[in-house]
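Researcher: Structure for this, please.
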Amino acid sequence: MHFPLAFLALGLGYLTFCISAPSSTVRSHHVVHEKRAVEPIDWTISHRPERNKRIPLRIGLTQNNLENLEDMLMAVSHPDSPEYAKHWSLQQVVDTFAPTEETVAKVVGWLKVSGFSSEKIKMSGNKGWIQVDATIAEVEELLDAEYHVYKHMETGEEQLSCQTYSVPAHIREHIDLIKPTVHFNHRPSPKSVNKFKRAGDLGKPSSSTGPKKNPVSKPVSSGSIPPALADCDEMITLDCLKALYSVPDFKPKSKDNTYGIVEFTPQAFLAGDLDMFFEEFEPSLVGVRPDIVLIDGAVVQTTNQSFDFNGESDLDLEYAMSLVNPQKITLLQTGDLVEGAGFDNWLDAVDAPFCTFEGGDDASQDGIYPDPLPGGFKGHESCGIIAPPFVVSTSYGQDEASATAFYAIRQCNEYAKLGLLGSTILYSSGDDGVAGNGGLCLNSTGQADANGTRFNPDFPATCPFITAAGATQVNPGSTVFEPEGASEQVIFSGGGFSNIFSMPSYQKTAVETFLKDHPPPYNSSQFNNTGTSRGFPDLAANGANYVIAIDGEFELVFGTSCSSPVTGSFITMINDARLAAGKRPVGFINPAIYSEQFRDAFNDITMGGNQGCGTPGFTATEGWDPVTGVGTPNVSKLLPLFLSLP
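Model: Predicted structure, C-alpha cell format:
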C-alpha cells in the first residue's frame, strides 16, 4: 500500500501554519530552520489572518544521545554482538534520550526573553516538547514568519501556511522542529468534503489506496480455488506461501508472544469476510476475531462496505491470523471517524514517552485529540495504552517528499527506540515501483508532478530503523518450486534510495556492492546516486494474486500490503520459538538479515524490476537490490539461525 499521510484539521476555524516574512523584517541573528516539503496544489493565497488569533505552538526539543542511537540499536540487534537481544527497559530509553538541561534552559530562556511568561510555557512529561499558546502576531515575531490564509479552489476551505520559519542561530541546535509551521495540509479536511471522500488520509478509501485488484479480473468462485499448489502462479493461498517459504507446521508454545497489525479508520475488517476465508482455508478460526485495541476513539466501522473500505484490513487479518493460528493477533485500530490518524498516533499508543498530548503530534499529519470537530472523539490521546507488540506490521505509507526532514527523522528515531525495546517494525515499501503515490514522480524542485521524472521514494520505508517489505510474484507459468521474480503484475515493488536518510552501517556492504557491480543507468537528476543514502526495501515476500474474502466474495489482490503482514507472521513464529526456549524476541532484524551468516536463509530474487517515472526502474539482481532487498525468507533456515543466537 502506498498512501500520503493523513492531512487533518485542527478545528480552529482554519489550520495554523506560516510563509516566510519579508527579508527586511528578518532579524540578523535568526536562521531558517525548516522549509515546506512540497508546495500545495489547488490552494491559493486568500488574505492575511487576524493577528490576535491564538494558536498552540509546539516546540520539539533536540533529544540527547541521538548521535549514538544507531550504535546502541546495533548492540542489541547484530548477531555478532555480545549484547544481542538484551533489550532495554522503557525507563532506560526515556532517561537516555531526554533533552539535556542545557537544551531545556536555552529554549525556555529564549521564550521568556521573547515576552512569554512562565505561566504560558508548558513542558511535556518527558521534557521532549514545550507548548506555548500565542497569538499569530506573537508567533510571527518569534519565528520571523508571516502567516497567510490559503483557500482551496474546489471546497473553499481555508488554512494558514508558510514556506519557512526561522529561529535564533544559537537556539537552532536545541530544536528539532516547531509545529504548526511548514507541514501544509494539502488536502481538504473532513469539514469541507463528503464523509470518507478526503484525498490524502491514511485510511481513506480510493482507487489508489490499499491492495489492488486486476481491473480485468472477476470474483473467484470457491470451487475454482485450487486445493493444492498447481496454480500458485494464478492464485496465492496459505499453502502456496508455506511452500514458497518453507514454513514448518506452527504450534505456538509461548503464551507471551505478541503480533500487532495497524489499521487506520475508516479501513475496517468485516466479520463475515473473515469467517468466509477461514471456512475455506482455516476452519478452526471460524468465529475467532483479533484482540482489538481502539486508539484515539477508533471504531471498526461497518456502515461503509466496499473493497476500498474493507480490502486492507480483511487481507491483513485473514493471512496473519491464519499463518500464526492459534497465536492471537492484536488489531491496533487507529483514529476516529471524523479526524482519522497518522503514524504518530499508533506510536503514541505503544510508546508512552513519545505520546505528545502536551504538544507533539502534527495537526497536518496526525489526529489531534480531544477531537474538536463535531462528532469527534473527546477523550485524551491514547498514550501508552498497550505494551509494544514484539512484531508490528503496517501496510500504509506516504511519499517521503511530502514530509519535512525534521518530521521524518524524529519519527524514524522512535522506531529505533521500539527496536531497543525489542520490537520488529515492518512497513510495506509501496506499490508504484520507483514512483510515488498514484505513480507521481518529482520535478526538479522536488515536488510531486504528473510530468516529474525524479524517483519518488516511500516513507516510512526509507527509515533505516524499520524493515521495509517489497513484493515478489510466482512468474506466470512457473511453480512454487521455481524462483520468484519481482512483482510486475498490477503493482511494482516500491524501492530505491532515500533523499533524507543516510545509509545505515548494517547495509553498507550490500548497497555498495549493488552500486559497484550493477550500476543503475540513471543520473543524479533521477535518483539519489551519492552512494551514501539508505536503500530500500530490506526484504520481500509474495505480493501478487492473493485470494482474499472481501465483501462476501473471493477476490484476487496485489500489493506490498500482502508482503508486510505475511513477513510479520514469519517473524512471529521465530519469536515464539525463542520465547519458548527462554530467550527474548528478535527485535530489530535488519542487522541480522544483512549479515553473512544469514545470507543463505533468503531466496535471492534475480528477475524483474520496479518500473516508474518513465523508466524500467531498478532491476532485481544477485544479492541485495532496491527492488526485493536481500530476497524472500526461508523460514526453515531462519528459525535455527535465530534460535542459535543468545
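Researcher: Any notable elements?
Model: Residues 320 and 569 are 6 Å apart (CA to CA). The first strand starts at residue 19 and ends at 20.
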